[in-house]
Amino acid sequence: MNEAEPRTLRARAVRLAIALAVMPLFGGWIASAQDPDIQDLTNLSVEDLAQVRLSTASRHLTDPRKAPAPVTTIGADEIRKHGWLTLAELLRSVPGFYTASDRTYTYLGVRGFLQSGDYNARILLLIDGHRLNDNIYDSALIGTEFPLDISQIDHVEIMRGPGSSLFGTDAELAVVNVFTKRPDTKNTVQLASEARSETGRVFEAGLSFRFGDLDGLASGSIFRSNGATKLYFPEFDSPVSNNSIAQNIDGDRYDHAFGMFRRGQLRVEGLFGIRHKIVPTASYGTIFNDPANFDVDRRGYVDAKYSHQFAKDTDFDLRFYYDAYRYMGSFPYQTENGGRTVQINDAASDGIGFESVLSKRLGRNRVVAGASGEYNLRLQQRNYYVGQQPFLDDHRTMNTLAGFGETELNPYRWLSLNLGGRVDWYSIYGTALSPRVALMVLPTAHTSVKYIFGHAFRAPDPYDEFYVDQLDITATNTQLKPESVNSHTILVEHTVNSSLRFTASAFQNDLNRIIEEQQDVVTGQTHFANLKGDQGRGLEFELNAKSRSGWSARPSYVFTRAISQDTRQSTLNSPAQIAKLNGIAPLGQYSSLGLELLYAGSQNNFANQRISSSFLTNATVSTPILRRGWEFSASCYNLFDRRWATPTGPEVSQPATVQDGRGFRFRISYRRSVEKQWR
Amino acid sequence: MKLPLVLLCLCMMLASSRVARAQEDQQAVRAAYIFNLSRYVSWPRPLKDLKICSEADERTGRLLKEILEGKNSDGRMVHIVLAPSGAEQRECAILYLGKASAVRVAAVLQDLGTSPVLTVSEDPQFVRHGGMVALVRAEDQIQLHVNVGALHLAGIQMSSRLLSIAVVDHAGGRN
To answer: Which domain holds residue A239?
Structure first.
């Protein structure tokens, strides 16, 4: 490329940018007079009208047919009828999604990509638009470590594909936005209790209140479980290791608190969750069957959002927040002289930030633009042996700024073009640009064909960049670069009738510069580095069927081939085929049966050992809220008690982690409205 | 390179009417609520047709007309009357005041007295000041606020199905 060409290309890019920016203004003058889209909602029941969510300046999808990505929405009714215990179990029902658990954390795979030990850093997790990925590990916690009760969820929107054009880092493979329930129109108290297998028990209490123009809700819960009484690990077969039996070393517990209040267009929300898990797998070479091996995660935030309409065609949202995360891990090790010592890893992050979004009509088009910023006043990682000075004591701060925008253009009723992009700046890592383009053709009122291209990134986090321990004592001396994904999707959606909808898609994801642990061949020590990347291609099919009598079915099948760009071999933790069925059938007037069938094909673990496929059946019988406010539910998980396991990473000696056999859950809840309204 | 750019620009220049969904969504939900009010409310006098009058702004009025005009509500045909006079207001089954000012609202309520006209507004203070129903935006939802005392004074009855999803205010009648 000679010297003249870069200038020519830059000039062309500038001309194109100017044209794209100016044309919508002219478009409003010469646009043909077409009828606006008038929504006639008069066929909705009053109860459904009360549940309709309005679009706001923030990134809400208004017409699912024109959403620039495949989106699955799962509501509270389906959560109840399937008896899902965690967000991970809900996500496992989404086409192309699968999970793995190392009995400490639950990991999510999307379209053939799951990296052990990355704590779901390639999935962006939001609660009511607030980012839940922490600023140390970028972890999206989805198992019992998720800090919100699943009973507090109103619905979850899962967007498959890159979302960095609007949301920034971590939105490489999917964006999961959890929406919490809204306050009742009446003052209400709710209590619930659960009994689960392995002495699991849950107690929940909540209230919905209204005080004049102010309404809100508050809830709290505790969960305790002893876990599996005995877990067998043949890798530790010796009398010293209790003959391979991890005995009462699987305990799990959490405490949650959630509250929100709103007045007019102001909403304030706060959340706190603490989760303590004992680790039975003797990960990272720790002493087997030692109860001092545990992880504690604390997560909390306060988020205030204000929405305002400046004029008929301008909406504005402004959000301020404080966010905090604490981690502590305890790792018992044997000393060289046969004694015992405990290593503590802890981490802390505190940040304050803002986000503003403006939505405006320009003539006959609509444009959304926004900005966000965050100041991480503490990013801290420490490692030390009890009674000794830390050998890792990293403290730093970080600033981030971002600008983003999206516009939807509709030259004709049957053609829609969605353009979006975001620029992120990190004080430590520099700048990242994330564009997204979606072309949508709507040949009929019932069919849409979409082509979507998106580029997303994941910035290195402090754990990737600055962590050291006994194994990883050389914090990388080459600054890590953000990893990225280029994603192409062709999506066809067809609504056969009001009861039946069919979706098919073909996708290709190219992950580049993957941040992964790499071993130095000379020293044997490890550090994080940018590796070449993976490529995944596949096909996805989903059917959505619903009847007015209450029957519904959601079968899906996904075929994926994910390979390493380096070796051209299949990647780890990647089942080639995933099939599932979620069905609901009414049982008389007052109950329903929820049935879930989940198949995941065999996959390789980190040592290229083949881990068998899994087939699970889960069933739940549940009632809605009955006459006097009572609600009941009984669930059986892994109904046929099939043995199944998920691949592990290099941090443990087992090739796979054996998962639970048949389990049960019984739930009872009581809800009472209080008529008195305080003024 | 030039032809695709020209085509792209043409597409954008011919961009059609894609009215902001945020505003339309709100009013569409309110229009649907107003239609449901006509189905779940009973008036003291029998109504042959259902006259829904609107004092809201022009765009809202046009939307109500496009969505509701000619619809059948329990055997009664819906007619939309925009900007009704004082005398016409007393003949309405439902009077929608939209975002009318407090002064205008007070004048209308004073003028109507205990006439069996179901008054509806978007203002959250409306039911406290004697109005009957408010369709209030709370965050990203439209909530139904109801003043049962005002309904009772006008002889209008509301179905328990609507009351069960409403924020019920016992403020009493019109000022």
So the answer is: 39-674
The string of pLDDT tens digits covering residues B128-170 is 889 999 999 888 888 999 999 999 999 999 999 999 899 998 7
Topology of B20-169 in CATH?
Rossmann fold (3.40.50)
The residues in B 28-87 lying below 8 A from A, measured between CB atoms, are 28-29, 31-33, 35-36, 40, 59, 63, 66-68, 71
Residue A628 covered by a domain: yes
Distance of CA A227 to CAs A213, A246, A247, B70, B113, Å?
A: 45, 11, 10, 63, 68
A27–B15 C-beta distance less than 8 A: yes
Query: Would A408 be classed as within a structural domain?
Result: yes
Q: Is A677 on the interface with B (CB under 8 A)?
A: yes
Contact A185 B167 (CB under 8 A): yes
- Note which residues in 379-418 of chain A have CB less than 8 A from chain B: 408-413, 415, 417
Q: Provide the mean pLDDT of chain A.
A: 86
pTM score over 0.95: no
The segments of chain B whose pLDDT lies below 70 read 1-24, 171-175
Question: Token match 């109950």: residue?
Answer: A591
Hey, are the CB atoms on A52 and B162 less than 8 Å from each other?
no
Alpha-carbon distances of A606 from A199, A418, A485, A602, A660, rounded to whole Å? 33, 39, 22, 14, 22
Q: Which of A49, A56, A262 sits opposite B32 (nearest CB)?
A: A49
Residue B3 forms contact with A (CB below 8 Å)? no
Give the separation between CA B91 and CA B152, rounded to whole angstroms.
Answer: 19
The pLDDT, as a whole number, for residue A496 is: 92
Domain ranges in chain B are 20-169
Q: DSSP letters of A196-230?
A: ETTTEEEEEEEEEEEETTEEEEEEEEEEEE---SE
Domain at A170, CATH number: 2.40.170.20
Cβ atoms within 10 Å of B100's Cβ, excluding its own: 19
Please answer yes or no on whether A359 and B15 come within 8 Å at the CB atom. Answer: no
Say how many C-beta atoms besides its own lie within 10 A of residue B81's C-beta.
Answer: 19
B contacts of A677 (beta carbons < 8 Å): 168-169
